[in-house]
Amino acid sequence: MSNSLFRKKSIKDLIDGPSKGNTLKKELGAFDLTMLGIGAIIGTGIFVLTGTGALTAGPALIISFVIAALACLFAALSYAEFASTVPVSGSVYTYTYLTLGEFIAFMIGWDLVLEYLLAVSAVSVGWSGYFQSLLAGFGLHIPTALTAAPGTIEGTTTYFNLPAFLIVMLITFLLSIGVKQSKRVNNIMVIIKIAVVLLFIVVAAGYVKPANWDPFMPFGFDGVFAAAALVFFAFIGFDAVASAAEETKNPKRDLPIGILSSLFVCTLLYVTVSAIMTGVVPFMQFEGVAHPISLPLQVSGQNWVAGVIDLGAILGMTTVMLVMLYGQTRVMFSMSRDGLMPPILSKVHKKYQTPYVATWFFGLIAGLLGAFISLDELAKLINIGTLSAFILVSVAVIVLRVKQPDLPRAFRCPAVPLVPILAILFCGFLILQLGAETWIRFAIWLVIGVVIYFAYSKKRSKLNQ
């Protein structure tokens, strides 16, 4: 029993396996992967969570961002080693199948469904709010009944969040017709939103008042750590770059570059933006503000830039949804190809060479979740799911170094086992900052995964044939 639960794939199986079955088209280079990472990372975190983070940590929010970034950096180094060594679709699911066995690989794949699917749904709701605000600026309004999920606006009858549903359907269509078309759209939107963030930095920097940074740490380290657990959401997404391994032209070189460079660029932007916004506006003034990046510009009388920031937020959230849905479909594609999920989910379109069935299936689910359900509390599950994945990939690097020390590695995570252990400790610490309700919901999700594995996946696994 235990042997079958922890049966493992060999590296040869992982690399050679796709050539014997469904394969994906190689379209991505280092620049595309970097844009993919930035597209996934810069979105809700910088445009929405910075305000909540400022209320939790005060001006010391910059330290919170650094702590969250360090947790991600240590995990990113482990991701980079695996992605360059085993350039196959599936991300951490694939890596754990290689090192820790099938059952744990299935559970982390099931865990990634939670991360990616809910991220798409949650961000679609935020996107809808910004989009409606933009339309209102032109005097256009969507019927109230179609502006939000049922019961989300007190005293108002709503049935369906139409903008949230439509944007997910548009992204689903884009992903279904090919990664080449998707990367072009993503690259353009990422360049624009980076320009928008830089515009904020240049304009708002002139209005900084150092007195607003005093006291720097009004809530002590408790506030800093609590904010770090919150703004960790702002870094979610770089791991989706690893899901693109099979569609990368030169994965051994380009994947580590894409993972690490996107994380570096985003950390630099986050720290700079949070320092400037708390320098322009006293942190307590972010109470109840839905557009925290716009507020410093409005206070400074730069309303035209505030309008541009809102447009950047819409583009930012669009790329987050695109990359997260992309990562979701690639993980499920890999699990299906391994026999752990129904075979139809790994069916590849003859013309576009994309897993189009999986793309539309999960696109529809994500769109309907965003349209019908309030995801305020469920969004916390995204953090616990991601942190769990980061911990497992760090464990997997240590295991593979011990079991196969001579395996050729294009990129080597430095200071093993120290760096992976630091990733485990940092991510474990952030998980402990999450509430009991989040843990209970996460446990329920995992129990559902266990039932699916023993009822369906275990017998149908390719390794069981």
From TrEMBL:
Superkingdom of the source species: Bacteria
A Pfam match: AA_permease_2
Transmembrane region(s): 28-49, 61-80, 92-110, 117-140, 160-178, 190-208, 223-245, 257-284, 304-327, 356-375, 381-402, 414-432, 438-456
GO CC, any one term: membrane
Keywords in alphabetical order: Membrane, Transmembrane, Transmembrane helix, Transport
Gene3D superfamilies named among the record's database cross-references: Amino acid/polyamine transporter I (1.20.1740.10)
GO MF: amino acid transmembrane transporter activity
Subcellular location: Membrane
Bilayer disposition of the protein: Multi-pass membrane protein
Protein name: Amino acid permease
